[in-house]
Write a structure and sequence with these properties.
Layout lengths: L1 E3 L2 E7 L7 H13 L4 E5 L11 E4 L1 H8 L1
Parallel strand pairs: 2-3, 3-4
Antiparallel strand pairs: 1-2
Amino acid sequence: MIERGRSREVIEIKLTSEPTPEDLARLTKVGDLLQAPHVVLLCRVRESVTTGRRWVTNLPDYLRATS
């Protein structure tokens, strides 16, 4: 978990290039418990999804989206 001011993000790093829906579901449960507005699954995907609450992204895209 990363806190920036009053905002929280729950981040999980996976080495896979094919994250499963179950991976994101588990991470979302943790985010719900911590009341985090964003959950981020960092992995080796070619195309990132960085809209909404649940992000599946690679590190370069994550850094661009949060800078």
